[in-house]
Fold this protein.
Amino acid sequence: MVASTDGKVMQNTPLNLQPRLGAAYRFTPTTVIRAGFGIAFDNYAAMVQNDRGVSGNWPSVGQIQKENINNPSSADPFPGYTTQNLPGLQALPAPTPFALENWYVDPKIKNAYSMQWNFGVQRQLNSATVVSATYVASANRRLNVGGFYNVATVPGPGDPSLRYPYPYISPTFYSRSNGAGNYNALQLQLNRRFTNGLAVTAAYTWSKSIDEGCSGFFGSEGCNVQQIYNLAAERSVSAFDVPQNLAISWIYAVPIGTGKLLDTGNKALNYALGNWQWNGITQFHSGTPYSINIPGDPANIGGNGYERPNLVGNPNPANRSPLAWLNPAAFAEPDQYTYGDMGRNALRTQFSKNIDTSIFREFPFADRYTVQIRGEAFNLFNTHVFGQPSSTLGASNFGTITSTNNSPRSIQLGAKFVF
């Protein structure tokens, strides 16, 4: 039997055109309109990983992984293995790949691409300040969707293997380029360059990202595909979707001193009151989505841990705390031989907020030297942003949070000599 008539394990994608088009028009002396369109392909990340992954699959020589082989002990001060005594080493691959569970790749997989466009208006308010509003969007195609394939195509009673598309092949992980997604955003920005001691940048984004599962690089952001043969039912917000994002940064140098906005006329007083600088960055953004899963195989399709529950109540308890972040009574296992009705990524982690700030004091002397003393505080108000709760229904720790998505307050002092 010949698996590939051209001798290639992975087929090429011979035509990947990546056009770019941009335009700018000065509508008035202080107003500019810009627009652009382009197509970008994933020519490296996921494609290279898929190619490398094939090397460990059948019919390659059998592989084995042995961990902690070099930890000395009193009984064996010089541990280690060689190819002669490595347990379980197989010199030959299995006679057939059909009984193996691995992460296989569609040989006709294609690299993902993104069609991106934008339209924006920028206006100059004065000599130092510019504001802009931009619509940014993308339509993403041929996205990588993994999951447990060759399970039964529909739920039902009886032996699920009798409902496998290929009964002679064990269910296994499989990667295909059949996903789709899109992104839409309104981006607002105010930018004031450093003038009269003040510089400010404020940016706000209102956006939405949608896909059909396995968000991020190989599902690194979350992969909760319940109906692997019906991706339309899995279409929901991406696991990295952040609809609200506000960031403000500033630099304020006290404008007191000789030649500055405020000049007391007294060198000593100017020196004492001037040379102070206050800086800061503050950010507020929505939490990221996550799904609730249940163990086992209630739909009886031959998988495990793929299914989501039914939502039967308010998932937020009355007295919410990290030890009780979710209301277990709001979730119920679906009836046997059915899928749960709760959507993918239906819940979000806590809204995030953070303020970093610093104060600088400079001591210039001898016309060319400066000593700078600085104090910096990260997470100034020591705000806790709780992480994702345990999301496996029925687990003893379900709904509890044991981590945070930010770091505790940190204060540091420093000094610098400039010459």
